[in-house]
Amino acid sequence: MTRPPALLVAALVASAGVAAAPAGATGDEVALNGTFTAFSDGLWAKTNEIMAYQADVTSRWTLTSSCTTYQDCTGTVTSDQGWTADLVYQSQRWRAVHVIRDWQRCPDGTTAPGEQSFTFWAARLDAPDRHDRLTGFDETTGPSGACGVNRWLNVRMPFTLTRTG
User: Fold this and answer.
1) More confident residue, 153 or 127
2) Total count of domains within the chain
3) Distance in angstroms (rounded) separating the CA atoms of residues 92 and 95
4) What is the pTM of this model?
5) Can you say whether the dihedral through the CA atoms of 120, 116, 60, 46 is positive or negative?
6) DSSP secondary-structure letter at 18?
7) Hey, what's the signal peptide range on this chain (predicted)?
8) Residues of the domain holding 50
């Protein structure tokens, strides 16, 4: 079996949407710290993969992170909505996950929690301002079986994170 040429491998990686680390990248260049405006765009939301408008959500986040290498970063997100979550960097993407109590309202008046995950990345890793505006998805999923329905409720919205300080 022969190995594919390096140029072909690079093209396949690029077409898959995974960017390579910038040349000479260090952990300090990847770390994400500061104050940001987080915006979830309800106009383009999908509920269980069907376009369904949701209310826009704007909040203020404080991010603190540190990296041991350009591939190994962890930190914390603190939102002005009253929650804090671990922040992890893997495969060129940041991810934060937290649980929203009483997220899903059932017809009988009961509620179910939802797991909200934010996944976001820099559009261009080689841009000097790559940490000033990031894009991704805000996705919340309720447990299967909630409200007597054997299916997850899933809401996914486009997400942007813009540096404010």
Assistant:
1) 153
2) 1
3) 10
4) 0.78
5) positive
6) -
7) 1-20
8) 21-98+113-139+153-163
CATH of the domain at 131: 2.40.128
What are the tens digits of pLDDT across the range 88-118?
A: 998 889 999 999 999 999 999 999 999 999 9
pLDDT exceeds 50 at position 6: no
Report yes or no on 121 lying in a domain.
Answer: yes
Average pLDDT over residues 22-37: 74
* Beta-sheet strands, E only, within the chain: 34-40, 46-47, 50-51, 57-69, 72-79, 84-90, 93-105, 111-122, 133-141, 154-163
Question: How confident is the model at residue 149, as a pLDDT?
Answer: 82
Contact of 94 with 32, CB cutoff 8 Å: yes
Q: Is 104 part of any domain?
A: no
pLDDT of residue 17: 40
Place of tokens 């813009």: 162
Write down the H helix ranges in the chain.
6-15, 27-30
Give percent above pLDDT 90 in the chain: 58
Over residues 13-24, the mean pLDDT reads 42
Residue 92 lies in a domain: yes
Q: Does residue 147 form part of some domain?
A: no
